[in-house]
Amino acid sequence: MIENSFLRLKTYCEAENYQGWDPYDGLNSAIFQATPLRHWDIARLALIQLCKRSPVNLRPLLMVPKQHNAKGIGLFLNGYCNLHKLATRGDTRFGTPDQLRARIDEVATLLLSLQSTGYSGACWGYNFDWQARRLFFFPAHTPTVVATSFCATALFAAYEATGTQRYLDAALSSGQFVLRDLNRRPCEGGFLLSYSPKKENDSVYNAALLGAKLLSHCYHHTADPVFRDTARQVVSAVCAGQAADGSWIYGLLPAQSWIDSFHTGYNLDGISHYMQLCNDQSFSTNLENGLDYYINNFFLADGTPKYYHDRTYPIDIHCPGQLLVTAHTLDRWTSMAGLCNKVLDWTIRHMQDEQGYFYYQMKKGISSRISYMRWSNAFMFNALTHYFLAEATIPGSGRPSP
């Protein structure tokens, strides 16, 4: 069932050429952009929320085009690199090494073409204007640490798969964006990195850790201690903010006090990458406590993936997807395979359309069945390739071991 699920998703995404809509792309409406309302923050926020929350897809009516999203392309690229790794180990269900190498080059070239310009290093943003509450307005292609981290780490993987120097050069260059262009918020133990070069968006734990993850990759490839030492200060600050029960709130602002599943997974992923790539086990207790909290608070007995620690809905596709990535990244597949398979079975049965794409969210009432290329499909594409890599390590799986 899982292999068939992935093949249907893969066929759908490739047929769409990785282009699609996004939950937050309402401001790409040609109709809205032709009116004076585009200058009013409340109107921008209202349109984004209308398009995001409506179970009916209003984008064709509003003339919102399907486009490439850099973070989504980074997720696809990382997924193809995982499949290439499988193929080089003898598992060619999803393509031969040569076929997947060609796909990696195609997608990596597309990703490089989507870079933002005018910054200290390679960086990426989203393909739409975005109003974040009334606090921030991000014009299209404003680089963020989140998008840049996903794109750069995919390019590191592409370099490791192909040996192509320009992939490594771009990925390492992104480290300069993190070091020079992002702001820093002093905290106990170190500091947090800002979400973007804009001021005052520097309070989110998972965003800061994604920056630390990127810097850890840069250190792994260069041995430059500036990358390691900066990453360590971020990890130290995030771990200092961890609650006694192992949880993290989303961020430091009063409006950011919730605890959710996939951002907790991001935190675990970031800490784990730092520990592995920088050879520093100082935060192993934080990682173990966070993982225990994650496993015990975000998944129901029947495999339902909860969004929040204290309530289930909305069920977001990122929650089951990140579980697969976290279990594989933390090298816990042997102990977590049962949970992962149960959650993945529930997800395929409840959140995959017969056309192959995955739904964005399920709610208690009417749920949206709109296909979102970055949020849903690229995320699950990458997550499922982690699943196949992890399963290949299980003795008796019938697949070649690494």
Roughly what percent helix? 40-55%
* Uncertain segments: none
N-to-C SSE string, H for helix and E for strand:
HHHHHHEEHHEEHHHHEHHEH
User: What's the total count of β strands?
Assistant: 6
What's the main sheet like? 2 strands, antiparallel
Q: What is the distance, rounded to the nearest whole angstrom, between the alpha carbons of the first and last residues?
A: 23 Å
What's the total helix number? 15
Categorize the overall geometry: globular
Strand order of the biggest β-sheet: 1-2
Strand pairing plus helix content: what structural class? mainly alpha
Give the percentage of residues in beta strands: under 5%
What's the pLDDT, averaged over the residues?
95
Radius of gyration: 20 Å
Which oligomeric form is depicted? single chain
Structure, described:
The chain is mostly helical. It is 55% helix and 4% strand. The protein has helices at 2-15, 30-33, 41-53, 59-62, 70-88, 97-113, 145-162, 165-181, 205-222, 225-240, 261-277, 284-297, 318-329, 333-351, 373-391, and strands at residues 130-132, 136-138, 184-187, 190-193, 315-316, 361-362. Strand 3 and strand 4 form a beta hairpin. Helix 8 (165-181) crosses helix 9 (205-222), helix 11 runs antiparallel to helix 12 and helix 13 (318-329) runs antiparallel to helix 14 (333-351). The longest helix is centred in the first third of the chain and has 19 residues, at 70-88. The chain starts with a helix and ends in an 11-residue tail after the last helix. The model has no long low-confidence stretch (mean pLDDT 95).
